[in-house]
Design goal:
Strand content: 15-25%
Largest sheet: 7 strands, mixed
Bound molecules: glycyl-adenosine-5'-phosphate
Strand order of the largest sheet: 3-9-10-16-13-12-11
CATH class of the largest domain: Alpha Beta
CATH architecture of the largest domain: 2-Layer Sandwich
CATH topology of the largest domain: BirA Bifunctional Protein, domain 2
CATH superfamily of the largest domain: Bira Bifunctional Protein, Domain 2
Helix content: 25-40%
Number of helices: 18
Shape: globular
Distance between the termini: 39 Å
Mean pLDDT: 95
Structural class: alpha+beta
């Protein structure tokens, strides 16, 4: 099945099974805003717990905070977001649709890539086992032509972005003959800068009101609390502050479901270190964060680093962890060595001393910062897309199953009475009443057992326990495993020990130490 179709199916699966709904659904939705349903919120909470515990529980020198979404507007001046948090946008005069100029050009680069890919696949079919891909891509004239055009475009685009040259971005769009996907025309406006921050007014009177922003990242809440936490927590460098919270960006091009949203959630950790030691820590955090991702067991080939060639003016190293989504490798997390930029800027704009006194060195300095920043929603999408499978069974049927890591699954155990009578429902509820303190259980009595298994597969429940008439006599149930579909008869009293450890976040955390 084409990856595009897999993605479409995943999106409808998310809605059908209570993971993700479009926001304001009965009003036909709100662009790039989504709600999480009954299963989605459990999965999301588990992802957040895995991240939080891996930071705060496993590191003595990392503590958490929860700062407000509204912050003093000068913070965004100091951080550079008021002046420089922009996307270059362009409008098509015929369709009246707005696009990000950089995205239009990146899509054009991807088209060349796709053309090369098609040539390779055609040749692979033609030559069969004798096909030598490396030789083909370095000698085939059509491939070489596409590659030359792609490289030239990439180079021109990179230069325009680096120079912030909006006229050149438009020239590239015109020269490449890029058309609006809606109107099919090249009737483009100039390219303009568009600030991504949402703003609103705080205060009731016209004179007394103040323009405030909905934070576009959670990081600044950590920087402005650096001294509060350091002093009250008696923290010694190196140490980190972690935070999970909502962020808002008025994205121009909002697409690919929950990949690019206008309201989303971030899990960010700022790690404060001695100046000069930041690149060593950057390396350590890169490794640790990749380990965190890989511990989920989706396969090491699903991840790659994308080191930034062009660095933001305040960074001296930066990389993305990319995940293989149905639409290619995409950024899920950023790891940045942000130097002392943020703390120094806040010192300058607030007029307060934000230095740290290092008792070992007997001197004060502005700490350097390594940031790890991951989007909860992107992480959610990566987990869902890696877990979603349509499987052909031996009996000719197909099943849709979410092969979620057990610790992340919304429901851990479904308990099912074989029939709705003869005391079996009561026995099933008795089991749930005992186990619900340990993990998330669901009672399910509707439809045939086969249908119930399918329903639980579709939401990724790792275990189902069936209560039958024999259960009333021997106090044993049939437990069915999601991935192998194997069934075994086990005593009710052993359910907790069979399931609890495997479904707990601890099982993932143990892989990190
Ligand atoms: N404090 C650094 C920072 O915010 P970023 O690369 O802009 O860096 C970090 O964002 C992460 O936040 C991204 O890797 C992504 O996972 C997530 N993210 C950013 N914009 C997003 C959006 N519009 N929708 C969903 N997630 C987003």
């Amino acid at each position: 099945m084409a990856q595009e179709d897999v993605f479409k199916k995943l999106v409808s699966h998310c809605k059908e099974y209570g993971f993700v709904f479009p926001s304001s659904d009965i009003y036909d939705g709100l662009g790039a805003v989504y709600d999480y349903g009954q299963n989605g919120v459990e999965l999301k909470n588990n992802i957040k717990k895995y991240w939080w515990d891996s930071m705060v529980l496993l590191h003595e020198n990392i503590v958490g905070i929860d700062s407000a979404i509204f912050m003093h507007p000068t913070i965004w001046k100091a951080s550079g977001h008021v002046d420089a948090f922009n996307d270059p946008l362009i409008d098509n005069k015929d369709s009246k649709k707005r696009y990000r100029a950089d995205v239009l050009i990146e899509d054009q680069i991807a088209k060349y890539e796709e053309k090369i890919h098609k040539e390779v696949e055609k040749a692979r079919k033609r030559f069969g086992d004798a096909f030598n891909e490396e030789q083909f891509v370095t000698t085939n004239q059509r491939v070489l032509d596409h590659k030359a055009k792609m490289d030239a475009l990439h180079e021109r685009y990179k230069r325009a972005m680096e120079a912030n040259d909006l006229v050149e971005l438009r020239n590239i769009i015109m020269d490449e003959g890029i058309v609006c996907p809606i109107s099919g025309t090249k009737n483009w406006t100039e390219v303009r800068q568009f600030n991504l921050m949402f703003s609103t007014e705080m205060g009731s009177t016209a004179e007394g009101s103040m323009k405030v922003y909905l934070r576009p990242e959670t990081a600044q809440g950590i920087f402005v609390n650096f001294l509060n936490v350091q002093k009250t927590g008696r923290m010694k460098i190196p140490f980190g502050i972690a935070q999970i919270g909502k962020a808002f960006r008025n994205e121009i091009v909002a697409r690919q479901f929950i990949f690019r949203m206008r309201e989303f959630e971030q899990m960010e950790m700022q790690f404060f270190v001695r100046p000069g030691q930041e690149l060593e820590w950057f390396k350590k955090w890169k490794e640790y964060r990749l380990k965190w991702h890989k511990a989920l067991g989706f396969g090491d080939d699903h991840y790659r680093f994308h080191d930034h060639e062009k660095l933001a003016h305040y960074a001296n190293a930066a990389t993305d962890i990319e995940f293989l989504m149905p639409f290619g490798f995409k950024e899920v997390e950023g790891i940045h060595s942000r130097t002392d930029f943020d703390l120094s800027q806040h010192e300058k704009f607030s007029g307060k001393n934000i230095k740290y006194f290092d008792p070992e060195l007997n001197e004060s300095y502005t700490p350097y910062v390594i940031e790890t920043s991951i989007g909860v929603d992107r992480m959610f999408l990566s987990v869902m897309s890696a877990a979603y499978r349509e499987e052909q069974l031996d009996n000719g049927e197909t099943r849709v199953v979410l092969r979620l890591p057990e610790a992340l699954a919304p429901i851990k155990l479904a308990v099912m009475p074989l029939v709705k009578k003869d005391g079996l429902p009561e026995k099933a509820r008795e089991i749930i009443d005992k186990l619900r303190f340990h993990f998330n259980c669901q009672y399910d009595e509707k439809d045939s057992i086969g249908k119930r298994y399918r329903r639980q597969d579709a939401i990724g429940t790792p275990y189902c326990a069936t209560v039958d008439h024999q259960t009333l006599e021997d106090n044993m149930v049939t437990i069915r495993h999601r991935d192998t579909m194997q069934q075994e008869r086990v005593p009710i009293d052993s359910l907790d020990s069979i399931i609890a450890e495997k479904v707990s976040i601890t099982s993932l955390l143990k892989k990190l130490v």
